[in-house]
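Whiteboard transcription, Tuesday session. T.W. wrote the structure tokens on the left side:
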């Protein structure tokens, strides 16, 4: 199991949360996807972390190769810059 941790620096937190709620539906049924959780920073409330569980990094990358443009198109209007994505075992 691999956890993708995506860091978002938001310029519009409410808009980002709404966009992630809608865009998150694209993950349903994806090969290797097991769930996700969104957390908002306490000391930095404009920073949000999205934790996404995958069977393998390859499953996440396969999903991104098909859905990256639509996903980023949905969330980028609410961000200060591009998200940072890292994977952890």
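and on the right, the sequence the group agreed on:
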């Amino acid at each position: 199991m691999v956890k993708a941790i995506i860091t978002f620096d938001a310029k519009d937190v409410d808009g980002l949360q709404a966009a992630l709620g809608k865009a998150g539906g694209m993950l349903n049924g994806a090969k290797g996807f097991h769930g996700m959780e969104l957390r908002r920073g306490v000391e930095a409330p404009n920073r949000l972390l999205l934790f996404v569980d995958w069977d393998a990094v390859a499953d996440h990358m396969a999903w991104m190769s098909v859905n990256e443009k639509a996903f980023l198109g949905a969330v980028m209007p609410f961000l200060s810059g591009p998200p940072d994505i890292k994977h952890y075992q």
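Someone added at the bottom: The mean pLDDT is 96.
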